């Protein structure tokens, strides 16, 4: 202790001497450095000891303060490093706009399809998609299924019985995530949505140069089908430019198709390798339906009509982007045959609320007051959860489910919708396809567009007029074509129905046990007469089964009855607008391209025959088919 005091006093003496000032009294007393022979009194010594104690306390406080500051700096640095990736995601698009503007300012080739600009955006987008990857799906999916309460069943708009399979209880039981899995998907979904909302509103304008056009996906077997789709498109009088996106794995098969066949029809092949690397394709496991989303994203058009390669436009649709409801919403969808089977868990993951006590529609009828079809004696919460279709309730996606063989979208207005739909498709095979469809018919990308728009509270219009089938009978019903209707005409009918219902008295809508959605709504407002003809014209025929691929037609013995005799495949051809001989036109095209001239090489077709262990036999059968149909 004495040594410490001596050290303190020596420091004070040195400091006073250096600054040429008098010593403090307590030091003079402590060192006997006083005038005369006065010795310090006990009181003075107490003052000395008190000052030494205060100095020690001050020194200790300074030391502790320094420690606190250093610890705080360390914690802040650690926290920054922990959140660095998230911080990067929140600023990535803002930083990108600077490089985007610089690139555009120095752009020389306006026909380069914005490759550098869009590729840079995609590089960062794919990084974010990887960043917000949800947990892997467990190998045993039965973990999420309550076998006792899950009631499987698919229903069309006409069905009246068995609708409890579409109820909240049943859909919940058929795919019900555990809390841990649901929380992971919810956090990843929220983070991705939060990130895409940071994208500057003007960015889509800088990414895409062209106004409007048609987009489809080719490659391999899809390019073979386009051999019939493109001629029909141009024979209809359509002049809109066409972009055909070719996946990287198919580029080597389609050189002749892209360089020699496609240009005849004012169409262009766009190779995805310009935008995607092998690493991205492998990391995100891109295949199948995901190419459709990438084609929509990578296309240089701002307004797109997307058509599957087996979807045929039956009339001139050059003005398809000019209709009121498209301009108003920017997204037009068409219905599928089936009622919706989306899991309630998806709503929780997307942060969407629904009301289990409030029924607001009956299937696709969202105009008739619910009082007409709600039985007051069967309206308890328990009854609704067990018997009423979940998607008739407030806050849920409307029926019917969507059929995505055709799609109209304004990419500038719905850029975020497109990005979220891409997220749903990238993680569709693992999670979102099942969340949207619960393994129902056509499960895939079909619900991701309406789901993304609904989740982001963006406007859209889905056609009300149900699908019309084109079919034939041979050992049962064979549906070969889905006829989809004019969306603008459909919207006009919908508005007329709304006006008519609003003009009625509420007393006209008392409970009617005989209410039926087809008879009371569809037939009443969307059919013209007792013959049941649709009021809306047909725009497209989605010839998805059988596709006009010579190998598929030959191998599957398409359009033959059980005795091997030819039958007319497509019925209702009076609805085919400009193409009552739709089937004959396509078979003549197949005969010319694949049988007679063989001007164009399609290596993928040869591979199909080789894989099946079959010799090329389509030429003879195509000749027979042409004779029969003609």
Automatic annotation (TrEMBL):
Transmembrane segments: 65-82
Location within or outside the cell: Golgi apparatus
Principal location class: Golgi
UniProt-listed Pfam families: Mannosyl_trans3, Ribosomal_L39
Keyword Membrane: yes
GO biological process terms on file: mannan biosynthetic process; translation
UniProt keyword annotations, A-Z: Glycoprotein, Golgi apparatus, Membrane, Ribonucleoprotein, Ribosomal protein, Transferase, Transmembrane, Transmembrane helix
Molecular function as annotated in GO: alpha-1,2-mannosyltransferase activity; structural constituent of ribosome
Domain of life, per lineage: Eukaryota
GO cellular component: Golgi apparatus; ribonucleoprotein complex; ribosome
Pathway participation: Protein modification; protein glycosylation
InterPro entries: Alpha_mannosyltransferase, Nucleotide-diphossugar_trans, Ribosomal_eL39, Ribosomal_eL39_dom_sf
Family: Belongs to the MNN1/MNT family.
Name of the protein this chain belongs to: Uncharacterized protein
Originating species: Arxiozyma heterogenica
């Amino acid at each position: 202790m004495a040594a410490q005091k001596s050290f303190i006093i020596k420091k004070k003496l040195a400091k006073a001497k250096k600054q040429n000032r008098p010593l403090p009294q307590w030091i003079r007393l402590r060192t006997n450095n006083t005038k005369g022979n006065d010795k310090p009194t006990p009181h003075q010594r107490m003052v000395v000891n008190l000052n030494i104690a205060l100095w020690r306390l001050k020194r200790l406080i300074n030391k502790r303060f320094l420690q606190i500051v250093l610890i705080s700096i360390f914690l802040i640095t650690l926290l920054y490093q922990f959140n660095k990736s998230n911080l990067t995601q929140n600023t990535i698009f803002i930083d990108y706009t600077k490089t985007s503007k610089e690139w555009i300012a120095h752009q020389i080739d306006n026909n380069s399809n914005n490759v550098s600009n869009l590729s840079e955006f995609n590089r960062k987008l794919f990084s974010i998609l990887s960043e917000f990857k949800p947990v892997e799906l467990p190998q045993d999916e039965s973990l999420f299924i309550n076998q006792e309460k899950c009631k499987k069943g698919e229903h069309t708009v006409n069905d009246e019985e068995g609708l409890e399979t579409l109820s909240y209880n049943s859909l919940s039981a058929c795919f019900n995530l555990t809390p841990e899995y649901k929380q992971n998907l919810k956090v990843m979904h929220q983070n991705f949505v939060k990130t895409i909302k940071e994208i500057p509103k003007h960015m889509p304008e800088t990414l895409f140069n062209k106004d409007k056009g048609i987009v489809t996906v080719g490659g391999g077997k899809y390019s073979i089908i386009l051999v019939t789709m493109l001629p029909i498109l141009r024979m209809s009088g359509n002049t809109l430019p066409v972009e055909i996106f070719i996946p990287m794995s198919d580029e080597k098969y389609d050189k002749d198709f892209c360089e020699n066949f496609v240009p005849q029809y004012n169409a262009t092949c766009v190779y995805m390798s310009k935008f995607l690397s092998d690493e991205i394709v492998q990391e995100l496991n891109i295949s199948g339906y995901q190419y459709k989303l990438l084609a929509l994203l990578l296309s240089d058009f701002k307004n797109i009509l997307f058509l599957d390669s087996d979807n045929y436009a039956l009339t001139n649709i050059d003005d398809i982007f000019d209709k009121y409801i498209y301009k108003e919403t920017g997204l037009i969808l068409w219905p599928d045959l089936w009622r919706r089977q989306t899991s309630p868990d998806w709503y929780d993951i997307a942060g969407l609320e629904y009301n289990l006590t409030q029924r607001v529609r009956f299937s696709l009828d969202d105009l008739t007051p619910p009082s007409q079809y709600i039985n007051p004696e069967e309206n308890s919460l328990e009854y609704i959860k067990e018997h009423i279709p979940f998607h008739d309730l407030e806050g849920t996606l409307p029926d019917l489910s969507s059929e995505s063989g055709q799609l109209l979208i304004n990419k500038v207005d719905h850029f975020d919708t497109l990005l979220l739909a891409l997220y749903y498709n990238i993680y569709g095979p693992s999670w979102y396809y099942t969340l949207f469809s619960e393994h129902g018919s056509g499960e895939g990308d079909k619900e991701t567009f309406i789901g993304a728009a609904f989740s982001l509270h963006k406007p859209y219009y889905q056609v009300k007029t149900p699908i019309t089938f084109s079919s034939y009978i041979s050992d049962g019903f064979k549906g070969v074509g889905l006829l989809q209707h004019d969306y603008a005409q459909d919207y006009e009918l919908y508005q007329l129905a709304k006006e008519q219902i609003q003009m009625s008295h509420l007393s006209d809508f008392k409970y009617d046990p005989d209410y039926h959605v087809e008879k009371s709504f569809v037939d009443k407002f969307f059919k013209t007469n007792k013959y049941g003809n649709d009021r809306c014209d047909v725009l497209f025929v989605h010839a998805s089964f059988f596709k006009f691929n010579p190998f598929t037609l030959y191998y599957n013995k398409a359009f033959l009855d059980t005795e091997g005799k030819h039958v007319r495949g497509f019925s209702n051809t009076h609805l085919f607008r400009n193409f009552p001989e739709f089937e004959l036109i396509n078979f003549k095209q197949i005969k010319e391209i694949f049988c007679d001239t063989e001007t164009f090489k399609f290596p993928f077709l040869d591979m199909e025959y080789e894989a099946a262990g079959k010799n090329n036999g389509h030429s003879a059968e195509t000749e027979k088919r042409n004779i029969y149909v003609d």
